[in-house]
């Protein structure tokens, strides 16, 4: 059990995780408290007595929470502490009064740890990624690829710092003036131009831009609320929209927050947390100027940042051969499945997932003829759909943790309402949840609102994946892994599923009659979706050799 605390200029964050011996971790608890450590001092050059007392109170609470979880706690401090003239006194008092040691990170260290945290939340390991993290005292920039930072720096562009310098932070009754905004923009442009950030980013072309931490998350939330309130927006671009936004959408947010002249007016903006109303103008303008300077057209939002990076760094120090897991989608699926499944159910679910992939891959190839034997639905499915099918099949049992009765409904709820599936878009999570919901009992219909509101092409894919998944789950009906493989043979009007039994300890083929019976009950729905007459046969290696070498004489209808 590990706890990581990020002592930010604006707020303190703590995450508690459970890690296994391989270093894979899952989130157990989170806590966040606004401290405003950098407030009350010009240019964040001093931690005031009031801010110090707020920090002590929060750290004591965090320490107590970590102790309750039996978690080893590591605390890092960023801009407000590293720039404070009295930082040594502050760090010493934390040790004497709260009994905790504080690591003061350099700006570059902070940026690199943020990158490591982001890699645990978004599948961008193989891409050249630009990470932007706007904090209260500074903004961190990282260019990274394959887990290695190519360029990392920190600039004194924080929303608290600039709000105090240019926008009268702390004087809430004061109305925002156009001249203040213009002066703020000039200052940001000068800092960016003199920093070397623009040249370094332009010299290494990035494939994806990612933002992290509170300011950027708040901007995304405001954009999301705007989309929800627009009746003409389709569901897949609102409730199921990805956590990302465009330069145009960012510009609309900046206009909206600047139009609200007072903090009280900004508090009423949908999606904006009230506690950020006094600093969102500064934060959003910083981000807009970064978009303009670096030519960013679209930005993804990462739920992970510095504190998760600290966890990764701690695990690397703890385990000698530790390598962070960067296939975060699969890792998060396995973690969620393990959280709710017994060992036997876990093995069975993974076995069914492998059979589902074999069936789907078989439906996308033709051993007995030309391309015309493939159905239109098979051709519609892509590699990413195969991954969603695998994830849903691995997770289809999780609802049994609640109750065996209607466990497919419970699985749907647990998948849809959790924070553990990382790297998946809201639409992808919806698809995984629906597949788990319909792997047994009823099939998806337009009477189900969740299914009906999916885009039409996605509905076709879900039906096809559902038909495959129902057969794959049935083929491990007794949770015994009795079927080793499934081979698919297609003709323009028919499909044969040749199942190969596993061999038992005595060398005999396993009895798979119950599995085959269960799978045959799912064939009518399969036929309806794929428009092919399906059948199932039990085959040994000799049968497969004959079918593969003499397809002309072999008839699926025989």
What's this, in brief?
This protein has helices at residues 49-68, 79-83, 87-98, 107-119, 159-166, 178-195, 197-203, 214-228, 247-259, 263-266, 280-294, 306-318, 328-340, 343-363, 376-380, 383-395, 407-416, 426-437, 449-452, 456-474, 513-520, 523-530, 541-549, and strands at residues 2-7, 11-19, 25-34, 72-77, 102-104, 129-134, 139-145, 148-155, 208-212, 244-246, 298-302, 483-491, 494-501, 533-538.
What class would the helix/strand composition place it in?
alpha/beta
By CATH, the superfamily of the largest domain comes out as: Hypothetical protein af1432
Low-confidence stretches: 231-238, 551-558
Shape verdict: elongated
Number of domains: 3
Oligomeric category: single chain
* Major sheet summary line: 6 strands, mixed
Sequence of strands across the biggest β-sheet: 8-7-6-9-11-10
Total strand segments: 14
Note the gap between the termini.
59 Å
CATH architecture of the largest domain: Orthogonal Bundle
Q: Would you give the CATH topology of the largest domain?
A: Hypothetical protein af1432
Count of runs of 4 or more consecutive helical residues:
23
| Average pLDDT figure | 88
Strand content: 15-25%
C-alpha Rg, in Å?
28 Å
Give the helix proportion (percent range). Answer: 40-55%
Protein name: Exopolyphosphatase
Pfam family, one: Ppx-GppA_III
InterPro entries: ATPase_NBD (IPR043129), GppA/Ppx_hydrolase (IPR050273), Ppx_GppA_C (IPR048950), Ppx_GppA_N (IPR003695), PyroPPase_GppA_Ppx (IPR030673)
Domain Ppx/GppA phosphatase C-terminal: 328-488
């Amino acid at each position: 059990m590990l706890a990581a605390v990020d002592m930010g200029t604006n707020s303190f964050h703590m995450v508690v995780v459970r890690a296994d011996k391989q270093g894979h971790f899952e989130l157990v608890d989170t806590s966040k408290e606004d401290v405003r450590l950098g407030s009350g001092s010009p240019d964040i050059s001093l931690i005031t007595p009031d801010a110090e007392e707020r920090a002590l109170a929060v750290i004591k609470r965090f320490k107590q929470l970590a102790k309750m979880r039996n978690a080893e706690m590591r605390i890092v401090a960023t801009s407000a502490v590293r720039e404070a003239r009295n930082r040594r006194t502050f760090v010493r008092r934390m040790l004497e009064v709260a009994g905790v040691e504080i690591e003061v990170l350099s700006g570059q260290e902070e940026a690199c740890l943020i990158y490591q945290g982001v890699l645990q939340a978004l599948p961008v390991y193989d891409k050249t990624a630009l990470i932007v993290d706007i904090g209260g005292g500074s903004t961190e920039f990282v260019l990274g690829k394959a887990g290695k930072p190519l360029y990392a720096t920190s600039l004194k562009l924080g929303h608290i710092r600039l709000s105090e310098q240019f926008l009268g932070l702390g004087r809430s009754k004061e109305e925002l003036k156009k001249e203040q905004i213009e002066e703020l923009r000039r200052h940001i442009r000068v800092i960016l131009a003199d920093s070397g950030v623009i040249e370094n980013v332009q010299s290494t072309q990035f494939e994806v831009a990612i933002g992290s931490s509170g300011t950027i998350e708040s901007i995304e939330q405001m954009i999301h609320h705007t989309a929800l309130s627009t009746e003409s927006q389709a569901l897949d671009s609102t409730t199921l929209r990805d956590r990302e936004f465009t330069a145009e959408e960012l510009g609309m947010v900046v206009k909206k927050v600047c139009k609200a002249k007072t903090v009280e007016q900004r508090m009423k903006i949908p999606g904006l947390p009230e506690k950020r109303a006094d600093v969102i103008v500064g934060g959003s303008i910083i981000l807009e100027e970064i978009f303009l300077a670096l030519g960013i057209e679209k930005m993804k939002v990462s739920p992970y940042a510095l504190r998760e990076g600290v966890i990764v760094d701690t695990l690397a120090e703890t385990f000698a051969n530790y390598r962070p897991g960067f296939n975060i989608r699969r890792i998060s699926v396995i973690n969620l499945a393990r959280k709710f499944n017994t060992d036997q159910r876990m093995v069975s679910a993974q076995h069914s997932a492998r059979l589902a992939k074999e069936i789907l891959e078989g439906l996308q190839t033709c051993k007995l003829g030309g391309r015309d034997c493939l159905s239109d639905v098979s051709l519609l499915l892509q590699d990413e759909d195969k991954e969603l099918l695998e994830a849903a099949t691995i997770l289809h049992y999780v609802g049994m943790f609640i109750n065996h009765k209607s466990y497919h409904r419970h699985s749907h709820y647990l998948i849809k309402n959790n924070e553990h599936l990382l790297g998946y878009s809201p639409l992808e999570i919806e698809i995984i949840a629906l597949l788990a919901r319909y792997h047994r009992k009823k099939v998806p219909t337009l009477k189900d609102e969740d299914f009906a509101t999916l885009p039409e092409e996605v509905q076709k894919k879900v039906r096809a994946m559902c038909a495959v998944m129902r057969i794959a789950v049935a083929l491990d009906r007794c949770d015994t892994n009795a079927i080793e493989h499934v081979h698919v043979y297609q003709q323009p009007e028919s499909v044969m599923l040749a199942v190969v039994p596993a061999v038992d300890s005595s060398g005999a083929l396993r009895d798979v009659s119950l599995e085959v019976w269960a799978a045959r009950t799912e064939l009518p729905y399969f036929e309806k979706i794929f428009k092919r007459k399906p059948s199932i046969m039990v085959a040994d290696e000799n049968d497969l050799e004959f079918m593969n070498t003499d397809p002309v004489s072999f008839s699926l209808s025989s």
